[in-house]
Write a structure and sequence with these properties.
Blueprint: H1 3-17, E1 23-28, E2 35-38, E3 41-47, E4 50-52, E5 55-57, H2 60-71, E6 75-79, H3 82-90, E7 97-101, H4 109-125, E8 128-131, H5 134-139, E9 150-152, H6 167-177, E10 182-185, H7 194-201, E11 208-211, H8 217-227, E12 232-236, H9 240-249, E13 252-255, H10 266-273, E14 278-281, H11 287-290, E15 297-300, H12 305-317, H13 319-336, H14 339-354
Parallel strand pairs: 1-3, 6-7, 7-8, 8-9, 10-11, 10-13, 11-12, 13-14, 14-15
Antiparallel strand pairs: 2-3, 4-5
Helix pairs in contact: 1-14, 3-4, 6-9, 7-8, 7-12, 10-13
Length: 357
């Protein structure tokens, strides 16, 4: 489950507890598509037929979406997913609509030229657009064209939804990584900046745990081998209990994403939720809304391994200051980023839109 999926899960499960019925439609590679109950909401899975430029397409999704939309009071999209723009217009649904705008399209610049007319028509057609941070709203060239219908609802997490690891699980990781280590959690993608982290870790003895898998994992492992970096541990995808154990024990969360494709950083927020100081890059997105420079952690220029190394060294050599930053990070989470706060804001928006019918 990646960041966007985690956000959808938090909204849907929180809304269901407040008697708001939610159906979630996604695609699956499982040839036997199914509907399952997850935490009180229904997850409908249409078969994924083809994937082009990181965009999934499905023939059956057209009819499944139409069926679900007919009984809904409000349709909630998550952007970017160009295929769903097509579904939106093809099914001609006349219902109130909101889209959570997770990120600008950064990498596929040539395809964006083809997609832009559809994108602009889609964003122009929805009733409300939600940005996940004021930082992203202020720096997005796309969102500024729709400012009259954009509102900010920060992403929130429910700590009670995370498991409590057993003591033996925590001891296992302490034995493997030691009492002090840095932690990265996330899908291993091009914009996560892990190649920068490997350069920063070179020549140090700070243990770094990388939790997650992804399309450039083999490439990064080859880079680590070439650099002779032996203090970086690629742990792959782990169960939530292990992830929580690592979040609870780490010295700090390092999040070197260097491109605007990283619009918020849910795993960065998880670090704040567990009271950990953070290291992130200033890329004009929600990462610097979560992590306030010199208050909840350290912020470095993007793509700068030397600055990243210096930030890691500071936290390593100043445990009192690091712990104080972690305390501030947790306070900020409780003030701005709880799931209850996010869900309440979305339900207020749903009610407002539903009254438009």
């Amino acid at each position: 489950m990646g960041g966007t999926e985690q956000v959808i899960n938090q909204i849907a499960r929180g809304a269901s507890r407040l008697a708001v019925e939610t159906d979630v439609l996604s695609l699956t590679t499982d040839p036997f598509s199914q509907t399952v109950d997850i935490d009180g909401y229904l997850a409908h899975r249409a078969r994924l037929d083809i994937q082009v430029a990181s965009t999934a397409f499905s023939i059956s999704a057209f009819s499944r979406f139409s069926q679900l939309a007919k009984k809904a009071d409000v349709i909630h999209y998550h952007f970017p997913w160009p295929f769903m723009d097509l579904v939106h217009f093809a099914t001609r649904i006349n219902k109130p609509t909101v889209v959570t705008y997770h990120s600008d399209i950064i990498r596929q610049k040539h395809l964006l030229k083809l997609y832009r007319p559809l994108m602009r028509r889609f964003l122009g057609s929805v009733d409300r657009i939600v940005a996940t941070s004021p930082n992203y709203l202020a720096t997005s060239d796309v969102l500024k064209d729709y400012i009259d219908k954009v509102q900010v609802i920060p992403i929130g997490l429910d700590k009670t939804a995370y498991p409590r690891p057993e003591a033996c699980r925590q001891r296992l990781w302490e034995d493997r990584l030691g009492p002090k280590f840095f932690l990265f959690v996330g899908v291993i993608r091009y914009y996560k900046g892990l190649h920068i982290l490997l350069e920063a870790a070179k020549g140090t003895d700070y243990p770094v745990a990388i939790v997650g898998a992804g399309p450039i994992e083999a490439e990064l492992k080859a880079q680590a081998s070439q650099l002779g970096v032996r203090n970086v541990h690629f742990l792959g995808h782990l169960p939530d209990e292990d992830k929580v154990a690592l979040l609870s024990q780490c010295l700090g969360v390092v999040f070197p994403s260097h491109l605007r494709s990283e619009a918020f950083g849910v795993s960065l927020l998880e670090g704040a939720m567990y009271g950990k100081p953070m290291i992130s890059s200033e890329i004009g997105t929600g990462t610097t809304f979560v992590n306030i420079k010199d208050e909840t952690g350290l912020v470095v220029p993007p793509g700068d391994p030397v600055a990243l190394r210096h930030a890691m060294r500071y936290l390593w050599e100043h445990p009192v200051e690091a712990a104080a930053m972690g305390e501030q990070a947790e306070k900020r989470y409780l003030q701005y980023f709880t799931a209850d706060r996010m869900v309440d804001a979305y339900i207020d928006l749903y009610r407002e839109l539903a009254h438009m019918q």
